Amino acid sequence: MTQINKKQSVLFLCTGNSARSQMAEALLKHKAGELFDVFSAGTQPDAIDTRTIDALNKFGLDTNNLVSKHIDTFDGQVFDYVITLCNKASNECRSYPNAIKQLAWDFPDPKTRAGSNSFSVTLNELNNRLSMFLLVEENRGSVANSSSNALPDELNNSLENFDPISFYKSLTDDIRLKTLMLTHYHGELCVCELMEAIAVDSQPKVSRNLAVLKKANVITDRKHGQWVFYRINPELPLWAKSVIAETTENNIPLINEELQRLANMQNRPNRAGFCK
Fold it and tell me: What would the DSSP string read from start to end of 67-103?
């Protein structure tokens, strides 16, 4: 007779129970709901932020049963894991009375962090941390193997064999970094546009750096007529896309002159057929 493993229980704690802890609850239910009973609460609960619901819905995660709750709701209940998601909640609940294991994670509040996609970025960060949590606990024998570790395709579009070391190495050159920032801003650019923007006279020099980015799977190219256009690889893991996006959005002064030179460029190539 097959033994049925009893579900373990997880309580996510944050201050407001309006964003991070709600995301963590929805994510873990999606990733390993057959292994865990998952709950969330706040030390000073507030209404769930509508942007939290929007971010979760965008990636196809169930939000129907998410409700903001006070930590007192679970008085006396024993949890296999109690996980705090911000320093404030960690300080207030440093030793939760009925936690078999307690973990203290700290994620920036998406309501106050910089960037236009802060809720999606936070969702991705939580997803990565929970994937690590499941892997670590599985290796410890605490968690059975789950078949639901993946998110919907939008969050789980990692390239097979994507190498983070090669990715970060590709950012260490001025030309390559600015190429990625400019490409992120414009969507796609060709070699001649990059030469004009970065003020490099040598086409082979730009092409060599593009080859490094392409080898690292950071960019892809497409040929249209006599032109070859380059863009950020759409299959990049979301965390890598977020690195490029956050770097660009928070460092526009670094490419102001390049953007201006590109805006003043004459006879730029025709982009017709981008989606072909």
Answer: ---BGGGGTT--EEEEEE-SHHHHHHTTT-TTEEEEE
Catalytic one among 14, 190, 192, 275?
A: 14
275 is catalytic: no
The Cα–Cα gap between 20 and 16 comes to 9
Catalytic residue among 86, 190, 192, 275: 86
Active site residue 14: yes
**Alpha-carbon span 38 to 51, nearest angstrom:** 21
Q: Is 86 a catalytic residue?
A: yes
Handedness of CA 230, 191, 246, 185 (dihedral sign): negative
How far does the chain reach from its first CA to its final CA, in angstroms?
56
pLDDT digits (tens, 9 = 90+) for 145-175: 544 444 454 445 556 678 899 999 999 999 9
Q: What is the pTM of this model?
A: 0.56
Antiparallel, parallel or unpaired: β 79-84 and 8-14: parallel
Exposure class string for 235-261: b at 16+ Cβ within 10 A, else e? ebbbbbbbbbbbebeeeeeebeebeeb
93, 190, 192, 275: which is the annotated catalytic residue?
93
Q: Tell me the average pLDDT of the chain.
A: 84
**Using CA atoms, how far apart are residues 203 and 216, in angstroms rounded to an integer?**
20
